[in-house]
Structure formats: C-alpha cells, structure tokens
Amino acid sequence: MKIGMAQLNPTVGDLVGNAERILAAARGAAEGGCRLLLTPELSLCGYPPRDLLLAPSFVEGMWAVLEGLARDLPASLAVLVGAVDRNLEAHTTGGKALFNSMVWLENGGVQQVFHKRLLPTYDVFDEHRYFEPGGESNLLVLDGVRIGVTICEDLWNDEEFWGKRSYAVNPIADLAELGVDLLVNLSASPYTVGKQRLREAMLDHAAGRYGLPVIYVNQVGGNDDLIFDGCSVALNRAGEVVCRAGAFESDFAVLDFDEGKGDLLKTAPVVRLSESEDEEIWSALVLGVRDYMRKCGFSKVVLGLSGGVDSSLVAAIAVEAVGRDNVLGVLMPSPYSSDHSVTDALALAKNLGIQTQVLPIGGLMEEYDKSLGDLFAGTSFGLAEENIQSRIRGNLLMAVSNKFGHLLISTGNKSEMAVGYCTLYGDMNGGLAAIADVPKMRVYSICRWLNERGKGEGEVIPESVLVKAPSAELKPGQFDQDSLPPYEVLDDILARMIHHRESPAQIVAAGHDAAVVERVVKLVTRAEFKRRQAPPGLKVTDRAFGTGWRMPIASRRSQPSLKVGEG
Fold first, then answer.
1. Which residues, other chains included, contact 380 with Cβ-Cβ below 8 Å and sequence gap of 6+?
2. CA atoms within 13 A on the CB side of 482
3. Catalytic status, residue 455
4. Which of 12, 163, 449, 489 could bridge 46 with an S-S bond, Cβ 3.0-4.6 Å?
C-alpha cells in the first residue's frame, strides 16, 4: 500500500483555501499511486483556530466545505482530513460542544470520524476550552490493513519514555492491544529549538516498544506567534527513520507499506535535520516572518537600523523572508549617536542590498525639550528624556508604516523584553517582534553562523557590529552594561528563572551573585506590563513571552526566605 504524507501550510480560518491545498495534494497522491493520504491535525481550518471555534457558523461552514471536498477527491483515494466535529451529546452530558477530529473521506463522503483523546492544556495549548476528549481507540481498516489513528498529543503520554504519565490513558498502548498493523499520528506540533530530535526519540521508543511502524505527519508554517516546522517522519518497526520531509517548508512524500512484512520500506527521501541550533532558529524565524506577512496581507517591511546587532539580524531575516527589494531600513541618528552607528547601519544595508532612509531626530528632540521645558524645569536629564528619543523614533517608523502599508518589525531581543530594557511606544512599536524569543547571546551566535554560512561571498553582518559594546545611545557614553549585568550572566539567570523555573536561591547556588539575581527577578516582574502590550513575538523556545506566558501584572512576590540550596 502506498501512503502519501501531505505536509501542509494552512491559513487559519481559510476553509476554502485549505481545502484546495488538500485537494491538490490528493490529486498528486492519486497520480503517484497512493491508496491513503494523511494530512495534519485540523488541516481544514488550520491550527490553532482558537475562538473561531466558538462561532457556530464557522463549524457549519467547515462541514459544508468538508462535504464538498469529499465529492471532489479522486475516487481511488482515502483521505484523512483534520476537522472539528460536533458533540451531539454535549447538551445531555454537560461536555464540550466539539471534538478535535480526523475525518476519513472516501467514495464521495464521510466514512468514519476519529476523535482526539488527549487534549493539551499547557503552554500555548488550551484545547479543554473548546473540545471534549474522545473516549475510544481510533481504528481504521483499509483494504485489510489495520491502522491506528492518533492526533498529536495522543502520542505524547508514554510513561516508559517520560518516566511518568500525564493522562489516565495511553492511546498508543490501547491501539497496540487492538492488534493494529500501523500507527499514524496527525499533528500540529509547534516548533521549539531541538524539538524534532525529541519527537524522533519518542517515535523510536514507540516503534520499539510496540513493534509497530509509525508515520508522523506535522503541519508546517507560521500562524501568529507559533511556527510549525513540519519535519514529518516515518519509522519502521525497528525504529529506523525511513522517510523525513523537509523542515520549515511544505512537502509531500510517498511511503510504501508492505502488508506481507507488516512494515514500512526504505523507499522515500530522508531530508537531513539542521546541523546546528543557530541554523534551525534562523530557518524558523525566516518562515515565521514570511508567513506572518503573507497571511496578514503585507508585502513590504520597514524597521529601524541602529547599527546594533539586533536590528542587523532582523534586517537579514526580513531580506531572506521577503527579498531585499521589499525591505526598508530607517536610520534615525540623534546628537548622542556615535559615528559608527550610522556607518555600521549603512554597511549592513549595503551587504544586504536594501534601501535606506536617514531621518535625523535632533530637531524633534529640541522641540520636545521646548514643549516640556516649563514642566521639567529644575529636574535632571534622565529616563524620561531618554525614552522620548525612542518614542520619536517609534513615531517616525509608524508613520512610514501607515503611509506606505509596510509591516513594522520591532527588533528587541528576549533578554531586553525580560527585564524591560525597552520603551513602550518607542522601540517596542511594531506589528511583529521577530526576535523577541531570542536571547542576546543567541543573537550574536546566529549572526556569526550567518557570516560563516556566507563565507567566501563576504560577511552579512559587519564584524564591527559584532565586536562593539551594545548601547542604546540615549545619552552620552551609554552602554547596556551600565544598567544590566553582562549579557552572558543575564542570559544564564533568565534561562534558569524562565525556562527551568529555578528559585532565586537555586540560581544563587549555581554561582550567581545574590544581589544581581534579586535585581534581575525584580526587573522581570516589573516589566510584565510592557510585555502585555508588545507585538506578537515569534516563539522558538519552550517558554516564550506570548500566548503561553500568563503572568499577572499587579502582583507582589512575598515568600518565606530560602537559604542557599533550598527551594
């Protein structure tokens, strides 16, 4: 039996457009001799649809499109399509009104509907808000082949692999007991750095534990802050990878399942994984920017170029995503800007081949000083005056965005967002925050990787950008480390606090200065109101400031003191 894997990039809510993508994949699968086509979780509506699901007309429209798709599919093909199904017993059981389902389409209609059994409600997931969990194992019998159907989270509850069980049931174990010949998992699994290797280790364990081949089909593309990496993969009964689709791109592959051997054959391409985390994150960010623009209707980008490493990386990402002719870099020097800020920004623009515009802000600063002169009389130059410069720049960038319809991309990194080293209505302005989940030291690492990738063709990020001390240049002689710990120290504290959820005492026990840790914790807590007003930030780590970060703004952390080593 030939089985097609359609690694699709849906647009959330675009039922007709997504159905057309599925139909095109189905026609290609039929031409390739496939008997079964697999598509990702909620492939018809895109994942995550969020509160679109609360509109009954959206669900009704989904089924109308689904039934039309069934009539148009090639007659020789069975297709599993991800869609939402109605829970007809909800009014009597008190359950949720919907199921997250896979629908078997064949012979012009719906043959069977399979419901997702495990519903994630953590990080960016909130499926209990919308869905009722399925209560039965999902078995599809096609031409005598017994196929166990699972949906995303259904695969992620193996107590032997994790050393614990998060749900009361293990759908894979249940299917193995039913004597299936093949396991398939249809997913919309968001990207985080290093996740594919974890997935494949988990799939390898499942194949080995149950002696079954496994096909995993994942969504690809950017939807708001989430990026889906694809990397659909198939493993034989021995846990060997027999096929892997491309990362961060739509793809299609045909697998051969030998009914006699009860196994998948090594007949499909195995695309390599990224060689480094820097390469992986770069590819994710490029896809995230490209899809955000395409799906929101933007064709051009504007961003501020400061001559610093953050704006340099964001400019490079934008060029890779939408092309150099569609990127405008705006330089906005003040009287405090160093000469190298302008020359470095222009050197970067030359390397990238992008258009630039210089808008000096000295005169605007003077006008603000005049307007506020009486009110500020008798006070010293400080944070208010510094932030006015950032807000002037933010206003100018938004004016360009409004006038020409460009998407303004903000350039702040995760380290700055964490501690509030950013200005509301200033450098935080924008419709998308491209590197808001990328710590400062990783920004440098990706830039160096980028230069190494282009070795022989000239540097992308000027070396002068990478070696100078970071500075916002909002007052004479200012450097970031006048206000913050060194970034290598700050990033480690933030990683321990945010990603590993270590207590201040644990972080101190790891070797950090207690006063520095206490200050960083306070800065992170106090900056929550800024993050709540920030543009969407592309998620590349397992703990991003976005839909999965739900911290109170008005709060006070009052806890018993812990001795070093406790907690």
1. none
2. 11
3. no
4. 12
Coil vs helix vs strand at 349: helix
Going along 87-213, which residue ranges are E strands?
Answer: 98-106, 109-115, 139-142, 145-151, 182-187
Handedness of CA 448, 454, 458, 461 (dihedral sign): negative
Active site residue 200: no
Phi/psi at 436 (5° precision):
-70, -10
How far is Cα 116 from Cα 138, in angstroms, rounded to an integer? 9
CA–CA dist 365, 378 (Å, integer): 18
Mean pLDDT of 2-15: 98
Compute the distance between CA of residue 224 and CA of residue 13 in angstroms, rounded to an integer: 13
* Residue 478 confidence (pLDDT) above 70: no
Q: Which of 96, 116, 295, 300 is catalytic?
A: 116
Distance (Å, rounded) from C-alpha 534 to C-alpha 536?
7
pLDDT digit string, tens, across residues 31-50: 999 999 999 999 999 999 99
Single-letter code of the amino acid located at 558:
S
Q: How far apart are CA 25 and CA 342, in angstroms?
A: 49
Q: Which of 34, 45, 152, 243 is catalytic?
A: 152
pLDDT higher than threshold 90 for residue 498: yes
With cut-offs at 50, 70 and 90, classify the pLDDT of residue 480.
low
Q: Is the pLDDT of residue 387 over 80?
A: yes
Distance separating alpha carbons of residues 513 and 507, to the nearest angstrom: 9
Question: pLDDT per residue over 422-431, tens digit each?
Answer: 999 999 999 9
Q: Please spell the DSSP secondary structure of 325-343, one letter per residue.
A: GGEEEEE---TT--HHHHH
Beta strands in 107-209 (DSSP E): 109-115, 139-142, 145-151, 182-187
- Tokens, residue 24: 């095109």
CB neighbourhood size of 121 (10 A): 11
Task: Let me know: does 193 contact 538? Beta carbons within 8 Å.
Answer: no
Per-residue tokens: 264: 């998948």
What is the pLDDT averaged over residues 419-440?
96
Whether the model clears a pTM of 0.90, i.e. scores above it, the answer is yes
Contact (Cβ atoms closer than 8 angstroms) between residue 387 and residue 426 = yes
Closest CA relative to residue 535, chosen from 372, 411, 447, 421: 411
Asked whether 265 and 40 are in contact (CB, 8 A), the reply is no
Catalytic-role residue among 34, 41, 414, 473: 41
Quote the Cα angle for 73-77-83, to 5°: 60
Give the pLDDT band of residue 292 (cuts 50, 70, 90). Answer: very high
- Residue 357 vs residues 89, 321, 340, 471, 494: alpha-carbon distances, Å: 61, 21, 17, 21, 36
Model pLDDT for residues 106-139, shown as the tens digit of each residue: 999 999 999 999 999 999 999 999 999 999 999 9
Short-list 395, 477, 474, CA closest to 428: 395
| Helix or strand run (H / E) with residue 356 | strand 355-358
Distance CA 202, CA 158 (A): 8
- The secondary structure element, H or E, covering residue 408 is strand 407-410
Helix count and strand count (H, E) for the chain? 18, 20
- The answer for 225, left when phi > 0, alpha when psi is -120 to 50, beta otherwise, is alpha
